[in-house]
Amino acid sequence: MQIKPLETSHLPRVMEIEHACFDKAVWESASIYEERLYSFPNGNLGIFSGDDLAGFLWCELWHYETQYGFDRFKLSHSPKAYHDPQGKELYISSFAVDPKFRKHIRGKRAFAKMINHTIVAHEITSSILLVSEQWKAARAIYTRWGFEETQRIQNFFTTSDGNQWDGLVMRTLIHHQNLSQNHI
Prior knowledge:
By secondary structure, the protein is α+β, with helices and mostly antiparallel strands. The protein has five helices and seven strands, in the order E-H-H-E-E-H-E-H-E-H-E-E.
C-alpha cells in the first residue's frame, strides 16, 4: 500500500470507485472532484496497490466553528466556498476503498494511513465528516477514530430506491501524541 496525492489523471478511476461504492443517488461529479483537487492539491489522497488506485480520501480544510449550518454539508457543494488553506479542521468529504481490493486493503487500515498522513502534513486539530446512518461499516471506522455524532440532518440521504436516511455529522479532536496508534 502506498499513499499519494491524487491528480487529474486519476479522476476516471475515482469515478469508477465512486460508482462501485455508493448508491447512484449520492454520486458526485468528476467536475466536483476536480475542483477539490485544485482547492486542496495535497489534501486529497489515493491509496495504491502497485499502480492501481484502490481507494481515496477527499478533504477540505475549514476554519473551525462549533457548529456549522447544514448547507455546508450539501453533496456536490463547491469546495472553493468553504476551503480555507489556513484552516485546522479537516472536513472529510469522501472516503472509499474499491470492493475489488477489500481482501487486501481493509477500510480501517486505509483510513488510518491516509488520515494520519493528512493530519501530520497539515497540523490538523480536529476533523469533521458527514455519514449516512445506514453506513454501519463506515461509522464503525470513524467511531474507532474517536468521531462522535454532533448533529443530525434528517432525511439527508435519499437512495435511488426512494429510501431516506439521516445524515450524521461526526467530529473528533486530534491528539497528535496519539497518532502512532494506528486505530486498526
